[in-house]
Amino acid sequence: MTTIPKVLTIAGSDTSGGAGIQADLKTFQELNVYGMTALTCVVTMDPQRWSHHVTPMSAELLESQLDTVLNGIGVTSAKTGMLSTVEIIDAVARKIEQRPLEHFVVDPVMICKGENEVLNPDTAEAILEKLVPKATVVTPNLFEASQLAKTAPIRTIEDMKVAAAKIHELGAKHVVIKGGGKLLHEKAVDLIYDGQEFELLESERIETNYIHGAGCTFSAAITAELAKGADVRTAVRNAKTFVTSAIRHGFPINSFVGPTLHAAHRLYRD
To answer: CA 51, CA 241: separation in Å to the nearest integer?
Structure first.
């Protein structure tokens, strides 16, 4: 009988299909793991301005979804994405405490693509207190890392190291800060820190606006690789290769946004 690693994404639905649960499931499928979902919210967009509206699920409904998967099926690894209320974060924390996971990836989503303010400041504190200490890996971008570490905006590799150390002190086993193309550096740089050693992962800077869902895709790829047995550093390296290819072959879907191409690693030899 064929077995396949089972993984869970606890995240929001991106109606446009490029990020959130949709991006996670596409990534899981491409990386040969069986993906399951617990929906935290639905994100819709104004077709004229592409501003975002977030409708949360109730904490009770989320708990029922988590019971379905964690108690009824079981998973090897799980990840979080957009957690839109403190009550939802509390529910996730309770269920993870009841059913400890072999691997738990926390992607601390705080804003929607194209927005520039934290969706709910209280959720940042709740993620910090309730979920980061449970994380095998936490994967903030530069903005999210500065929010978690309570530092000034991150602009250099040294800034990334300072923030990573502060986040690790909060309990995460591994911190991966996504510098991407926004750091003041000639390469696209991500940083791994395990409390002892910093490792820089560099790749070419790809000049493109078609990066919708890149962060979700990266954290989902880490989750999938961990489920298949990779150690954390190998999982992160493999995920960076996967998402770099997806970004390189991103494409527009309307005049506002373009997602990454999750099948790029399979369709093209970069």
So the answer is: 31
